[in-house]
Amino acid sequence: MITKSIPSLFTVGNLFLGIVAIILVFNEKPELAAMMVIIAMLLDGVDGRIARALNAQSEFGKELDSLSDVISFGVAPAFIMYVVAFQDLNQAASWIITALFPICGALRLARFNVISGMPGYFIGLPIPAAGGVLCTLALFYKDIPAAVLMASTLLLSFLMVSTVKYPNFKKIGIPKGAIWVVPIVVIVAVVLGYLFPKHLSKIIFVPLLLYALYGLKKNVSAVVRLTSRKNRRRRAAEEAAKSEHSA
To answer: What phi-psi label fits residue 25: left (phi over 0), alpha (psi between -120 and 50 degrees) or beta?
Structure first.
C-alpha cells in the first residue's frame, strides 16, 4: 500500500511547490517563486516514471497529476508574470492575459487526458514546459518590454492548445533499483534552487525556450514544405496544360 502511494507523494509535492510559488511571488520573491516551479517540474517529471517502475499507475494518480499541473504550471507562472510585469499595465488586458494562460493549460491537460497522442510526441506544448518558460521569462522583466512579455504569454497559451508536435521524453523510464536516487536528486535541486534562485532559473530558461521554439520551428517547416509541394504540383499542372494546348 505504501509503495503504491509513493508516486502520489511526488505529485502532492509538485502541488505544494506550486502553492508556495504563488505565496513567494506575492511576498516579492519572484526568483524563489520561479525556482519552486522549476523544482515542481522535476517532481512532475519523475512521478510518472516512478509509478511505472513500481507498477503503481492508477486513474487517481493521473487525475491528481493533472489538477496539480494546473496550479503549479498554469496558475503559479501566470501570477509570477502578473506580479512582476503586468500589475502597472492596462488592468483589463493584464487580467485577461493572466487568466488565459492557466485556462489554456487546463484545456491542454483535458485534451491530453481524453485524446490519444502520437507515439513519441505530445500534441501541443506541455504545460510544465510552458509554465517553466513563463516563470523564468518573467525574471527578465527589467530587460524586456512589457508588450513583448504579454505577446510571449499569449504565444505560450496558444502553443499549449495548438496541434504543434513536441518530443515526448516521458517514456524514458527509471530502473526500479535506482528509485532511491530520486529523493537525493530532488533534495540537491532544492538546495541549489534556494542558494542560487536567480541565476539557476535564468540558466534553465534557455533549454526550456529552445524546446518551446523547437516544436514551432518543426511546424512552420512542415507548412513551408507542404506549400512548396503544392506550388510545384500547380506549376507542373500549368506546364502540362500549356503543352497540351500547344499540341
So the answer is: alpha
Task: Compute how many other C-beta atoms are within 10 angstroms of the C-beta atom of residue 224.
Answer: 10
Per-residue pLDDT tens listing for the chain (247 residues):
566 677 788 889 999 999 999 999 999 999 889 989 998 988 888 777 777 767 767 788 788 888 999 999 999 999 999 999 998 888 999 999 999 999 999 999 998 888 766 667 788 899 999 999 999 999 888 889 999 999 999 999 999 999 888 887 665 444 555 444 555 555 666 666 666 666 666 677 777 788 777 766 666 555 455 555 655 666 655 665 566 655 5
Domains of the chain: 1-200 (1.20.120.1760)
C-alpha to C-alpha distance for 20 and 153, rounded to whole angstroms: 22
**How many residues are given for the chain?**
247
